[in-house]
Amino acid sequence: MNTLNKTLALIALASSSAAFAATDFDTLDVDGSGAISQSEASVDADLMSKFAELDTDGNGELSKEEFSNA
Ligand SMILES: [Ca+2]
Ligand SMILES: [Ca+2]
């Protein structure tokens, strides 16, 4: 809704986790679905830039196996 609140929430999330934890599969899978959606990947610019390449089955989400190729 509010970009500032969203930013603050991300900062709070980042500071409560270990450094670079955002590159960890379980951390990125915020909703625990077992796959990383594009919106979940959007917190990591590097991952986002490789998203289409990593999504080898083209279902719009990264499975743990697909993510392991990052
Ligand atoms: Ca997910
Ligand atoms: Ca996929």
List the helices and strands and how they pair.
Blueprint: H1 3-16, H2 25-28, E1 35-37, H3 38-41, H4 45-54, E2 61-63, H5 64-67
Antiparallel strand pairs: 1-2
The protein binds calcium ion (2 copies).
Residues 29, 31, 33, 35-37, 40 line the site of one calcium ion (CA).
GO molecular function: calcium ion binding
Signal peptide: 1-21
Protein name: Calmodulin
Q: Could you list some keywords that capture this structure?
A:
single chain; 70 residues; mainly alpha; Recoverin, domain 1; two-stranded antiparallel sheet; 51% helix; binds calcium ion
Structure report:
Keywords: Signal. This is Calmodulin. There is one protein chain. The protein has five helices and two strands. With 70 residues, the protein is mainly alpha-helical. It has a single domain, classed as Recoverin, domain 1 (Orthogonal Bundle), CATH 1.10.238. It has a two-stranded antiparallel sheet with strand order 1-2. It is elongated, with a radius of gyration of 12 Å. The chain starts with a helix and ends with a helix. It binds calcium ion (CA) (2 copies).
Can you give me a brief rundown of this structure?
The chain is 51% helix and 9% strand. The protein has helices at residues 3-16, 25-28, 38-41, 45-54, 64-67; strands at residues 35-37, 61-63.
